[in-house]
Amino acid sequence: MSRIVVVYHSGYGHTQRMAQSVAQGAGGELIAIDADGNLPEGGWETLDAADAIIFGSPTYMGSVSWQFKKFADASSKAWFSQKWKDKIAAGFTNSAGMNGDKLATLNTLFTLSMQHGMIWVSQGLMPSNTKGAQRNDVNYLVSYSGAIAQSPSDAGANDMLPGDLETARLFGERVATVTTKFKG
């Protein structure tokens, strides 16, 4: 059985809810990056032992949070010894805006995984982009690079749309399927 880890930072709880949905779909383990940008004890060892790592960060000012960036910079120790090479990788994000430059955040997560020599998994869902599409449909925000969600700036994490969370869960399932194909 594949070991999948979802490592994420969440500033206000929205990205955490998304991470929980991704982990549910992937059958994965959650590792939260704390408010100071650090992993819990044993976090690095858990990531090193994983077959797949799914990265998550809110989109702040068109990129990952500074806490996630601190984690990414600290991952240079794993990079130096190529500990994550050929692991499966994927990413997800949430922001207040419908667009919110979330693609820039996914590109940052992609670049991090490419630096580590990882294998990126796309969203793999068809978009909900017809006249009859509703905001709560799966992949309504239409991302191909990774899972994305939108939460109004005055909405709490419990107000996240079920369609966005289902998109995240299905994304986790896809990562698990691809990981099984690659890792057995």
From TrEMBL:
Pfam families referenced in this protein's UniProt entry, alphabetically: FMN_red
Coiled-coil regions listed: none
Matching SUPFAM superfamilies: Flavoproteins
Residue ranges crossing the lipid bilayer per the database entry: none
Record keywords: Flavoprotein, FMN
Q: Which cofactors does this gene product need?
A: FMN
Which residues belong to any copy of the Flavodoxin-like domain? Answer: 4-149
PROSITE patterns according to UniProt? FLAVODOXIN, FLAVODOXIN_LIKE
Gene3D superfamilies xref list: 3.40.50.360
Q: Which organism is it from?
A: Hydrogenophaga laconesensis
Q: What InterPro entries does the record point to?
A: Flavodoxin/NO_synth, Flavodoxin_CS, Flavoprotein-like_sf, FMN_Rdtase-like_dom
What name has this protein been given in UniProt? Flavoprotein WrbA
